Amino acid sequence: MSQVTLYDQSGYAPTEIAGVDEAGRGCLAGPVVAGACILPVEYDLPGLTDSKKLTAAKREVLYDLIREQAVAWTIGVSWAPEIDEINILQATFRAMGRAVRHLNVQPKFLQIDGNKTIPPYALKLHIPQEFVIQGDGKIPAISAASIMAKTFRDRLMVKLAKRYPGYGISKHMGYGTKAHMEAVKTLGPCKMHRLTFGGVKPEEKKQEQASLF
């Protein structure tokens, strides 16, 4: 059994703190997904760390364990049209806010992975918060949120790959691989693509300067 340790001197009990992280921010297709998680004082989550450092199989195991043991956990999503409308940063904030608001237990403090906190207009709750750079490798609750967001999103992208064949979505999960970008050029973007992102957005043709002679 492991015990939650506090990264800072916030003064809040471990069960009053929610970790928040996102997955899919840099993708060309699919939603950006945020996870929020409150861990108990003691838990049994072997290998808990930043989701990017884990294999897909290990994330799957931890995903189910976190769901069983967490005080509360939830997912927030922002889809491609919203990302195109308000930009990826604002869409990420909205996804994080949705995740926090839908927790069954409202936390008294938030720890956000990265270098920004959630703006009030996106959070819509009066909860103190702090950002923690590389928090997904430092704070267990953020690590758990990272795994929840990544695994949920990967499962979703596998399902979307069947609905939108030809792009190889189940292999690259929407990231801008060479094969993915070639598929977009051949097939054009689908409804899951972020049309404002480079590699998806059609290149503007340069107008030739008219000759004076």
Automatic annotation (TrEMBL):
<comment type="function">
    <text>Endonuclease that specifically degrades the RNA of RNA-DNA hybrids.</text>
</comment>
<dbReference type="InterPro" id="IPR024567">
    <property type="entry name" value="RNase_HII/HIII_dom"/>
</dbReference>
<feature type="binding site">
    <location>
        <position position="22"/>
    </location>
    <ligand>
        <name>a divalent metal cation</name>
    </ligand>
</feature>
<keyword id="KW-0540">Nuclease</keyword>
<keyword id="KW-0963">Cytoplasm</keyword>
<dbReference type="Pfam" id="PF01351">
    <property type="entry name" value="RNase_HII"/>
</dbReference>
<keyword id="KW-0378">Hydrolase</keyword>
<dbReference type="InterPro" id="IPR036397">
    <property type="entry name" value="RNaseH_sf"/>
</dbReference>
<dbReference type="InterPro" id="IPR012337">
    <property type="entry name" value="RNaseH-like_sf"/>
</dbReference>
<feature type="domain" description="RNase H type-2">
    <location>
        <begin position="15"/>
        <end position="209"/>
    </location>
</feature>
<keyword id="KW-0255">Endonuclease</keyword>
<dbReference type="InterPro" id="IPR022898">
    <property type="entry name" value="RNase_HII"/>
</dbReference>
<keyword id="KW-0479">Metal-binding</keyword>
<protein>
    <recommendedName>
        <fullName>Ribonuclease HII</fullName>
        <ecNumber>3.1.26.4</ecNumber>
    </recommendedName>
</protein>
<feature type="binding site">
    <location>
        <position position="113"/>
    </location>
    <ligand>
        <name>a divalent metal cation</name>
    </ligand>
</feature>
<feature type="binding site">
    <location>
        <position position="21"/>
    </location>
    <ligand>
        <name>a divalent metal cation</name>
    </ligand>
</feature>
<comment type="similarity">
    <text>Belongs to the RNase HII family.</text>
</comment>
<dbReference type="InterPro" id="IPR001352">
    <property type="entry name" value="RNase_HII/HIII"/>
</dbReference>
<keyword id="KW-0464">Manganese</keyword>
